[in-house]
Amino acid sequence: MAATIGVIGLGKLGLPVAVTLAMRGHKVLGYDKNPDRMSVSALSPHERGIDGSTALADAADASLPLRFAPLKDLLVEVDCVFVLVETPHQPAYEGTTPLPESRADFSYDALTSVLVDIARHAPRPMEIGVMSTVLPGTVRARVLPLVGGHDIVYCPQFVAMGTVAADLCAPEFTLMGCEGTPAPTVESVLRGLGGAAPVLVMDYESAELAKMVYNTYISAKVTIANTVQRMAHEVGADAAAVYQVIAAADRRILGPAYVGPGMGDGGPCHPRDNIALSWLARGVGDGSDLFTAVMRSRQAYVEWLGDLFVDLAGGRPLVLLGTAFKPGTDIEAGSSSVLMATQLRLAGRQVRVVPGPADLGPLEAEPAAYFIGNPEKEFVDHDFPPGSVVVDPWHRVADRPDVAVHRVGEGPRQVARR
Ligand SMILES: NC(=O)c1ccc[n+]([C@@H]2O[C@H](COP(=O)([O-])OP(=O)(O)OC[C@H]3O[C@@H](n4cnc5c(N)ncnc54)[C@H](O)[C@@H]3O)[C@@H](O)[C@H]2O)c1
């Protein structure tokens, strides 16, 4: 259903969004604090239309239901607003200069200032869709306190410059972060744009993290491709042939496999191959050594899980269930669970290790702290003594009476919904 929509912040993203919403039949009012942006003539000539080929500016003629108005007037008329102001990083963090040692959050000055203005001038409770990119935790910490009484949806867009209109109208998915259910007009506008695309509704923090991780996943893919190219050059391989292999691996590499909760990567091939390639990369002078970084991150993750296990155990005896690198095997080579046992022992902890289901033995009578190193069915369904703690990085152990089950990384709001 057509809505009256305010688009606030008409920059590189906001102006094409405003034009696209109008092309999809909504009545759109645009506002930017910079008057130069309050005109379709400010559209980049590089932005293409919904068809992905003709210029978006060509479609933005006078018949389009798009007007520009001061913020106060806009707020009187609209059913909802989308906010697309900048959330910039300092120039040192843009990636055009050598990486500094320091790190910083984005600047939220423009976002907080515009939300204060909206809250001040809105004549009634507003539905506000925030499309600006923010770090996880920002909406709850910085946005909600400014807009009490207004309904916030965090709805970042996954679009590329040049194809904003086409990407908006054919998204991979529609993502909305909210408390409870999304504000109805914002939801209906976004669902209308997305057509048959899956609609993913979640808490603010998960949506914020998903937006950031989407981009960094792409960075990781590009960086692996770059590393292949550099190594191919150095060792006399053909980078294009290597890419051909990876691009054909649509089950394990390009599909959703491995994107889920669990232990660190493991097995007789993966850690060993990373470590061997890091040696080769050092030999050919790859100063960044991506493979060492991958191994260090894996090790740090397993160490963090071990620390969490000890914390949550609260002094109970530690029992590690499963040392094979995956279910259905007894192979321990490269196992992250074995790495955890090693790390705990090196840290002076006593830990009882139960390698496989056959080693479970009789039930313990006293409460203990269990870590699911390998999610074999017998471990997941184990009858843990009352008063025990179970730490499950795989999200396989169900809640049960008198046992504290911690599925690592399961959000507090997800826990509350159970
Ligand atoms: N450009 C992209 O490809 C892209 C893609 C996805 C997400 N994003 C995110 O969208 C947001 C906007 O990005 P952009 O590239 O369009 O930024 P931009 O700097 O091009 O545009 C921001 C606009 O907001 C306006 N603005 C600032 N404060 C305002 C206020 N108080 N009231 C009204 N207008 C105000 C500015 O004048 C500017 O025109 C950022 O958070 C960015 O990370 C951008």
TrEMBL record:
All copies of domain UDP-glucose/GDP-mannose dehydrogenase dimerisation, residue ranges: 205-296
Q: Which InterPro entries match?
A: 6-PGluconate_DH-like_C_sf (IPR008927), D-isomer_DH_CS1 (IPR029752), NAD(P)-bd_dom_sf (IPR036291), UDP-Glc/GDP-Man (IPR017476), UDP-Glc/GDP-Man_DH_dimer (IPR014026), UDP-Glc/GDP-Man_DH_N (IPR001732), UDP_ManNAc/GlcNAc_DH (IPR028359)
Protein name stated in the entry: NAD(P)-binding domain-containing protein
Q: Which family does it belong to?
A: Belongs to the UDP-glucose/GDP-mannose dehydrogenase family.
The chain positions of domain UDP-glucose/GDP-mannose dehydrogenase N-terminal read 4-183
The record ties this protein, via Pfam families, to: UDPG_MGDP_dh (PF00984), UDPG_MGDP_dh_N (PF03721)
Q: Which PANTHER family match?
A: UDP-GLUCOSE 6-DEHYDROGENASE TUAD
Which species is listed as the source?
Answer: Actinokineospora guangxiensis
